[in-house]
Design goal:
The protein is of the alpha+beta class and 200 residues long. It is 52% helix and 8% strand.
């Protein structure tokens, strides 16, 4: 039985996992299964009580989540160079950049979850707070953008930026973050990013 991945092409966290698998040449070992976590299907709850995607289901039926844990597991499979350095300061730097990108995704996904709700006081306050998280994250990344796409931190940043383009095209970020924009342009055609574009 192959590994399956509870998947949606719109999820930036799913995209990070698939991009990491492509970068390491092991995406063929993963079968994506379309799953809507918001309706909590039994198949997802059976492997992830949090009802979140991505969730990788191993050959023995074990559920592996969240995206950082899945990527860590995938990094130990196959023979390609790892995306996470083994030890020390380089490892910490990659994982911190991944955490920063994940935080931007979390904030943007939360903002997106309010779409269609009345713009009441709670939504207004939450949206402003999460928007500020994204803006501070972008500023930090523009100050120190990744180099290339050789590690998991860079892959996560590309997925976060892709999600902003996908869900918030009316909030352009490139002009205020030229170094980050130049880096994103330089990696967008590489297979891990090009092959995992969210739907148009
Ligand atoms: N920290 C988790 C976040 C995953 C996440 O938030 N996934 C969203 C889709 S983008 C989800 O499944 N949401 C369903 C829900 O919150 O009910 C990870 O890195 O995998």
């Amino acid at each position: 039985m192959p590994m399956i991945l509870h998947h949606s092409p719109a999820s930036p966290f799913v995209r990070k996992v698939m991009a990491a698998a492509i970068a390491r040449g092991i995406d063929g070992q993963i079968t994506p299964v379309a799953t809507n976590p918001h309706v909590s299907p039994d198949e997802l709850l059976a492997v992830n009580p949090l009802s979140k995607i991505p969730c990788l289901v191993l050959e023995d039926g074990t559920g592996v989540f969240d995206s950082a844990v899945i990527c860590d597991m995938l990094d130990r499979m196959g023979d390609a160079p790892p995306l996470i350095p083994a030890t020390g300061a380089p490892r910490t730097a990659v994982l911190v950049r991944e955490a920063l990108a994940d935080g931007i995704m979390d904030a943007a996904v939360m903002r997106r979850g309010f779409v269609g709700q009345p713009m009441d006081e709670v939504r207004t306050r939450t949206d402003a707070r999460q928007k500020a998280v994204v803006q501070r994250g972008l500023a930090a990344l523009d100050h120190a953008p990744p180099a290339g796409l050789a590690d998991l931190g860079a892959i996560a940043v590309a997925c976060a930026l892709g999600y902003l383009d996908f869900r918030f095209p009316h909030e352009p970020w490139r002009e205020a973050h030229p170094a980050l924009a130049a880096w994103f342009a330089s990696v967008s055609a590489l297979p891990p990013i090009a092959k995992t574009q969210p739907p148009a």
